[in-house]
Amino acid sequence: MRYKPDWEATQKRFEAFWEREVLDRCMIAVSTWKDGAAIPDYTPPRNEEEEFRRWTDPELIIRGMRREFENTYFGGDAFPILIPNLGAAGHAGFFRGAKFRFQGSVWFFKSADDPAELEFDRNSFLYQKTLELARAFAEDSRGDYMVSMPDTTGNADALSHLLGPERLFECFLEEPEATKAALGKIETAYEQIMRDVYDIVREANQGGSIVGWLSTWAPGFHAQMQSDLSVMISRPMFDEFVLPELTRQCDFLDYALYHLDGMEQIRHLDSLLSISRLRAIQWTQVAGQPPATDFIPVLKRIQQAGKCLVMHVSPDQVEPLMQALSSRGLYLLTCMETEAEGRELIKKVEKWTHD
Known about the structure:
The protein is built from 13 helices and 13 strands.
């Protein structure tokens, strides 16, 4: 791989990671700018047209990301990834009449009131643009980098985009069957886009697939699952409306990973751990919440249930987390100030690795 000459070693570590085995050390991704890098300048879009192109023009995206790849130190198990990114829970945009705007991110707005009215539109702009970006990235990559699956995940999150959160919670309470039917339509959209994109990017990803923002690779059909709105609902409501979706998606995927977005989701952890085909949980350290090192008992529960564990952490957390947790199925991601610091941390991880 052009920007990652030691990719083969990382690939082997990923294969072992999914089996909760350790080859030579715990998985650790360390990223920083290269020494003497020409750090790309970011110029904010001057108008709506430039903002639109920033998200949707494959040539512009590729040019900018290749410039970033050239100047990035991919240390340890970090590797270059390009993401067809059109919004979190972006499959909301695959429904007729969906309202969205590009402005620093992709924002969705209430576009329906009746969950029974939702109509999946495979010809919608965002669906077709997702495929266009995936094709362009895969064709351009030529083994230089890999291409992520899209961030089209979280069916209840997508339904919240479409109905608005207040209306969605009303539907949970007052129209549960219609809500479940709507979630089923969104599941159809999820499975369709994931299948289509996987077919496009699989060859570029050496037969596997990627969750880009987590820098995870798996030797098969791999994608993220989530339910960020679950921080606002009880466990019984989670089990009724969200758990069936996650169970189905774990059966659909070969390597399913759940993005656990902060401490409020701990109340759903037993439900998540009950899904036999769930392979990994990604712990998110949310701004304003205690660090991951404050949740060692919870993180141990995840490992003891046979799930892999992925975490973005600050450099000072790496050693205490590795001391407290098994290195089997553990993947830590961090950023350093310099290449030298990154290399030194990787050497220390080799020493800290244990069962």
